[in-house]
Design goal:
Elements lengths: L20 E5 L4 H11 L2 E9 L5 E6 L6 E5 L6 H18 L2 E6 L18 H12 L3 E5 L4 H4 L5 E5 L2 H9 L7 E4 L5 H11 L3 E3 L2 E3 L6 E3 L12 E8 L3 H12 L5 E8 L5 H7 L2 E7 L7 E3 L2 H8 L1
Parallel strand pairs: 1-2, 1-4, 4-5, 5-6, 6-7, 8-9, 8-12, 12-13, 13-14, 14-15
Antiparallel strand pairs: 2-3, 10-11
Helix pairs in contact: 1-9, 2-3, 5-6
Length: 309
Amino acid sequence: MYGNHSKLKKPHTQVYSLGKQSLIAGSSSEELSEKLATKLNMRIIRTQDFSFPDGENKITLHGTLSDQEIVVVQSMYPPVNTNLVRALSLVARAREAAPKVTAIIPYMGYARQDRAFLTGEIITMKVLARLFKCAGATKIVVVDMHSNAGLKHFKIKTLNITAIPELVKYFKKMRLKNPLVVSPDKGGAGRAAEFAERLKTDYIILAKQRNRKTGKVQITTKDPGHVKGRDMILVDDMVSTGGSIISAAKLLKRQKCGKIYVACTHGLLVEGAEKKIKKAGVTKIISTNTIPGNTAVVDVSLAIARAVR
């Protein structure tokens, strides 16, 4: 679902006017980059990737870089490590040309590894923070980082943009029956509260237990409250394998709820998660274009443009 950028692609025609700033469109965020460049009135620099048989990547830029300020847009969804190296390479090249480099990483990989949960674990987010600084980024922009704890590892300016307003706009256009916002765990309480407030409804929080070694998720809430007949909106920052969403959906179905929808910023949906989630009773999954895919129907380019501008 993420697309294949392993082969050389013919560069698109540049249609944006020349300005003092230029935007490098990483291969993982081409569509989002186009929307951003338009909204920011920046000249877009397209990239061309080539993957060698041994897994190494080569990147070629098409266009002249600004010597004042450059924006790099590259999301870090799977293959995470490949997209990370590409992001760092683009940032490094941008810094060679300009003194200011803003790295827009719509989906920041490794964000869940922002602290050590078990003895001996490496805090990988701290490593990434150092890498981006060393590569030359002077500012990092992310969308709905898993937690603010991850941003604290960066020693440069950071900006965490929320996609909740854009997601709520989408749901306001839907004909929902007395909707109830649901957070799969306590960690998402603030997110659910904001979503519910903007949607002008109420919310509940489920209790979740995760085995730190196996990753297995279990929803322990016995009575989630009065949900009978109401449409549910399960809100989360990201959906990867869908374990939490599936457990929550099954629980809500047992309580005779109405339709169940999922609203998330980052729709990773790996290991057949989309099919499994729908099999558990979810009517539709709505995510943003931080990660392109079937469920990415909400555009966050305006939210990013406003914040960057």
